[in-house]
Amino acid sequence: xxxxxxxxxxxxxxxxxxxGRTKDVNINATAQFCxxxxxELSEVRVVPDVIDTIVEAVNALRKRYTYVFTTGGxxxxxxxxxxxxIARAFGVALPIHPVAREMLExxxxxxxxxxxxxxxxxARIPEGADLVVNAVSAAPGFRIANVYVMAGVPxxxxxxxxxxxxxxxxxxxxxxxxxxxxxGEGALGDPxxxxxxxxxxxxxxxxxxxxxxxxxxxxxxxxxxxxxxxTATAEVQALVDKxxxxxxxxxxxxxxx
Length: 257
What we know:
Layout: E1 6-13, H1 15-19, H2 26-37, E2 39-47, H3 51-64, E3 67-71, H4 82-90, H5 98-111, H6 117-120, E4 130-132, E5 141-144, E6 147-150, H7 154-164, E7 175-181, H8 189-197, E8 203-209, E9 216-223, H9 226-247
Parallel strand pairs: 1-2, 1-3, 3-6
Antiparallel strand pairs: 4-5, 5-6, 7-9, 8-9
Helix pairs in contact: 2-7, 3-4, 8-9
């Protein structure tokens, strides 16, 4: 029996991402994480630090996908409003969580850090949520229903992903194949579209490449069904081989997949 398809949406929160002040790396990390688990990362949204916008995005994504991951906005400053937005999205209170507070105060005691109201903001957890362990700085993330709320700092985000991995249900693995064509996309468009029309269970993408000193297009095929993927790949390879013969094109070794 085939495993079911498990999907995810990612919500990246923060004005600093949208302004360009901070370069996001969490999208790539989450995509790799999902691929490794057989989860399809189907959508990524980047939103500002605006509660109504976050609420709208969370409510849309959590209805659409198996899992929703969020990054950013759970720190101690006034503009860290993700927890507030998640609580509002679920219609629950946002009290200080006793276990989260204990975890934080224990870490602060070790480092001699003063307990302040601002720092205790990081212990506010929506009612009904479970904590997501943070092995890096102790400030936890949380899970409520199918929404996992995590830090924006990349090293902490990755640690949180590792913490939740055993709790997630994996799906069907996606395999990929690649074919290199020594022509532009225009020469491939119509025949490639005809092949795609017969393989609706195989995604075929074309990506123009630069840096080889000549025209190149990199074709990538992806599917859960390995047999269908291999058959479609053979057809695409045959198409490319014919074009190469007709145009007397020979690919250099470095251009081959």
